[in-house]
Amino acid sequence: MRTGMTLLIKFILTFVSAFIAFDLLLNNDISWILLLSLVAMLINYLIGDLMVLPAKGNMIASIGDGLLAAITAYIFDLLIPAFTTSWSTLLWFAILIGIAEYFFHLYLKKDEKVAP
Asked: Membrane-crossing residues (predicted)?
């Protein structure tokens, strides 16, 4: 149950970052932002939290999570005509995710009850 709550927190952090970058700055539809947040959260969890964080540490994992999230949003832009990005919003998204993930990883490392 603790891992589920942690993933919910990660989703909320991802959604807030995506909302700021893609709704407030570009006015994308909230349903696409929700889907992007879910996909980016899952990718960042599987790659960033389970593989990169234990092997390379918090800073590298946080930067990688930001880059992975921006790449995911860019792929969404290519595949979904109704969803748009710009270089500046992708940069903002990567920065916001990187910052959020840095502090999220600190929480993960402190909480021994969260399953890897």
From this structure: 7-26, 32-54, 66-84, 90-108
